[in-house]
Automatic annotation (TrEMBL):
Keywords: Hydrolase. It comes from the Bacteria. CDD domains: 4HBT. The lineage of its organism: Bacteria, Pseudomonadati, Pseudomonadota, Gammaproteobacteria, Methylococcales. This is 4-hydroxybenzoyl-CoA thioesterase. PANTHER family: 4-HYDROXYBENZOYL-COA THIOESTERASE FAMILY MEMBER, NOVEL THIOESTERASE SUPERFAMILY DOMAIN AND SAPOSIN A-TYPE DOMAIN CONTAINING PROTEIN (0610012H03RIK). One of its GO terms (molecular function) is fatty acyl-CoA hydrolase activity. Belongs to the 4-hydroxybenzoyl-CoA thioesterase family.
Amino acid sequence: MTKSVLEAEVAIDIPFHDVDMMAVAWHGHYCKYFEVARCALLDKIAYNYPQMRDSGFAWPLVDIRIRYVKPARFGQRVLVRARLSEWEHRLKIDYLILDQASGDRLTKGYSVQVAVDLNSGELCWQSPPVLLAKLGLVSPCSD
């Protein structure tokens, strides 16, 4: 796996409909910003949500943590970085939101997703071979 596969970055302009009367982004929208970066990361390995479903697995979110450092404000351009940090038994993705102009850290956090077999509804205790193949860790034909 190369670093370019493990990380993705997206730029987001904080829209008016995401802010409160003080022009500060409402805290709940940070999950949405994480999701945009998460999808960009999953696209890099060709295993975004449609491919997950087609491979027979759902990957529900089971944990998310957010640490707010500085507020994002209306019209501010932010960079949201997503980095895959664990993949053997779960998907753990670390996030960092930066002000694009200054590079100041605004927010950091992580999310955890686990594989669930769509046919049986059973939780998988390790990541399925299809994910490891997408990451280049095993052959797509191995069990």
